[in-house]
Design a protein that fits this description.
This protein has 395 residues and is α+β, with helices and mostly antiparallel strands. It has 13 helices and 18 strands. The chain binds guanosine-5'-diphosphate and manganese (II) ion.
Length: 395
């Protein structure tokens, strides 16, 4: 689960990380009111969406008076912001964070991630803050400082000191930098985070260290024991299709193509994706029915996929081990016979009880296109989708 910048800042601040003064606003009036609370003569109005890259997308506005604040807030609120991380759907701005502006002398990057291979928390830092880490890693990989934490002892002050020195932070700010780094680490560990990123961490012209941007992600599987974190969830920032599926105990990945896919298992999803692309199509989504799916569960999955308005053809690809092809077939019949099915519907079943499954589909008399192999299924789905588009075009 992701949270907003202002929420991450509030959390990190409790762990000793210095942040600029700021306040939340849901309206232009509130934004202006915040600047009076904060004081000073320059502020930044920041769109709160679950995405980075807001600056380049116009979601961060620098303002010098009430009028500019009001206009910036009015322009941002309710707008759909498309960044290089959101995809074409973008994210709608419902909240703004208003902060005192900082006069930046130097920008740094610090990130804490879980290194799954090493099974350790690992820290990445760079003296080239402000740009995205992927870009730094691509263009100046040598500038990256990497440190791994030994879980038995936790992050040590000497490790924080070493990072601060390598970043080139001035002596007068080293102790603040150590507090910041150790604070991020403790927040990460104590709250079951999966990532903490401060980009940029800045040294200001008047020689203070502050976290100008902050991002945190949390382990969904640990949220049950972090009620204070789980209540920060903002469903307005999540893909509604994925949310609906999660609420029904199914796992859904929304994509941007036209072929809706029902599969079992992540590996089969990958293989199906490759095969669809190879055949010249693009998946609209993947819905994973998991193992041992009942006919009802399969029917729910189909209804969810059909509810996605980008879907122009459906591909069911099940390789049944724990699953049973006859149950999957029953689910298909349940779902499809209840509606007026006008999209091409391709089914490939394989594995446990496959003959029974095929028999059920044949006997149903439903307009289902059968396939024996994954390749055949993908080709038929793409061809059916192309035909469908052609026919729609003719009116
Ligand atoms: P992001 O684009 O979503 O990562 O949003 P950030 O909060 O990182 O803001 C983008 C960029 O705007 C930062 O990298 C800074 O360079 C700049 N910025 C943000 N706040 C301030 C500020 O208070 N003063 C100045 N001078 N620049 C700022
Ligand atoms: Mn940033």
């Amino acid at each position: 689960m992701e949270i907003h910048e202002y929420q991450a800042k509030e959390i990190l601040s409790d762990f000793g990380v210095p942040i600029p003064r700021g306040g939340l606003a849901y309206s232009p009036e509130q934004a202006v009111y915040r600047t009076h609370e904060i004081g000073g003569d320059a502020w930044v109005v920041k769109a709160q969406i679950h995405s980075g890259g807001r600056g380049k997308a116009g979601g961060i506005k620098f303002c010098r008076d009430d009028d500019e604040i009001w206009k910036a807030a009015d322009e941002l609120l309710g707008r759909r912001l498309i960044t290089n991380q959101t995809g074409n759907a973008g994210k709608i701005i419902h909240r703004l964070y208003v902060e005192e502006a900082s006069d930046i002398a130097n920008e740094y990057y610090i990130g804490f991630v879980l290194d799954r291979q090493k099974e350790r928390i690992s820290i990445v830092a760079s003296p080239e803050g402000g740009v995205e880490i992927e870009e730094i890693a691509r263009e100046r990989p040598d500038s990256l400082i990497r440190v791994t934490v030994e879980p038995a002892v936790g992050m040590q002050p000497f490790q924080a000191r070493e990072i601060a020195f390598k970043l080139g932070i001035d002596k007068s700010l080293i102790s603040q930098a150590i507090t910041t780094l150790l604070g991020c680490y403790r927040a990460f560990r104590d709250l079951d985070a999966t990532m903490v990123e401060i980009n940029p961490l800045v040294v200001t012209a008047d020689n203070h260290l502050v976290a100008l941007d902050a991002k945190m992600g949390f382990d969904d599987n640990a949220l049950f024991r972090r009620p204070n974190i789980s209540e920060l969830r903002d469903k307005s920032q999540e893909d509604p299709r994925e949310m609906k599926a999660a609420d029904r105990g199914l796992s859904y990945v929304g994509l941007e193509g036209n072929i809706g896919c029902i599969i079992n298992g992540a590996g089969l999803a990958m293989a199906t994706m490759d095969m669809i692309k190879h055949a010249g199509g693009e998946p609209a989504n993947f819905l994973d029915i998991g193992g041992g799916a009942s006919p009802e569960r399969v029917a729910k999955a189909i209804n969810l996929v059909l509810g996605d308005k980008n879907v122009r053809a459906v591909l069911v690809n099940i390789f049944a081990g724990i699953n049973r092809c006859d149950w999957v077939a029953e689910g298909i019949v349940q779902a499809v016979s209840k509606i007026e099915m006008n999209l091409p519907f391709v089914v490939r079943l394989s594995g446990t009880n496959v003959e029974e499954g095929r028999e059920i589909l044949r006997n149903s008399q439903l307009p289902i296109i059968m396939a024996d192999t994954l390749q055949e299924a993908a080709e038929k789905a793409v061809a059916a989708w192309q035909d469908y588009e052609k026919n729609q075009g003719q009116g």
